[in-house]
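Let us work through a complete example step by step.
Step 1: write down the sequence.
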Amino acid sequence: MTRTRIPGWLAIGGAVLIGVLTAVQARINGQLGVKLGDGLTAAVVSFGTGLVILVVLSLALRVGRGGFGRLVQGLRGRDIPIWMLCGGVAGALTVATQGLAIGIIGVSIGLVGIVSGQSMSGLVLDRIGVGPSGVVAVTPGRLAGGALSLVAVAVALTGGAIRTVPLWMLVLPLLVGVGIAWQQATNGRLRQHVGTPLTVTLVNFLGGTLVLVVVAAVHVAVVGLPRTFPHEAWYYIGGIVGVIYIFLAAAVVAYTGVLLLGLASVVGQVLTSMLLDLAWPTPASPGFGQQAVIAVIALASVIVAAVPWRRVTARR
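Step 2: predict the structure and record it as tokens.
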């Protein structure tokens, strides 16, 4: 299927916006988890609302109906392998982690684990050709960009507040980062078959909701449902935000590659998480100076990875 080309700067800008929306969703779902005292139920609410929106859009829009038809045809003809439908598992882990941990550790601390996981996983996935762009070479610039993102992680982990955070809350974001890179690569491949990010996003939310409902059902059977749900509407828009950024990721990954998409989205996440944690701090939120250093290093990592260094050298 023919793909309309878009400028590189626009694709990177879309990736940055994905990071902004990811940070916003993380804080919304984190606060819902704190309010309910149940992060898994908060994750089901977020994914469930997103799924309802996507079902309505897929039925109402011709592009959605066409994409779903191509999905069914591809599955019947075995042109679409089952593993391409599993991106929602990574999404479920992301939203569950937001509900379980982000409301306690803050967006910035959660981000550092995601950065580490995304950077290393993105390099590997690009190198073995999992993404829609095929095999993407691990150039010195891309490797240096990934290394700089790890420096940002190290800076974030120097704060004293980190000692009060349970270890599992630090491990979960790392796994989320690995999962997000794999999800972005998988979604890009699936989009090549179905032709529209709308169907890709629907598949993600359907799979993620099923996983979360099963896990949450077991959890509720043991501990029971939350006693009260908040009345404020903003607690329930995390699913809408997730629909937008997963749609965007499926659309731009073919132009950026998995690693660059991850690094550019990190810029949006870092800057937005810094603003959110400054305006609305949690017990483990880093101070402004530390967050500023993290933001500068993250920006540098994207520049180093994105600039075509070979061409620059050749002109000299």
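Step 3: interpret the result. The longest helix spans residues 87-128.
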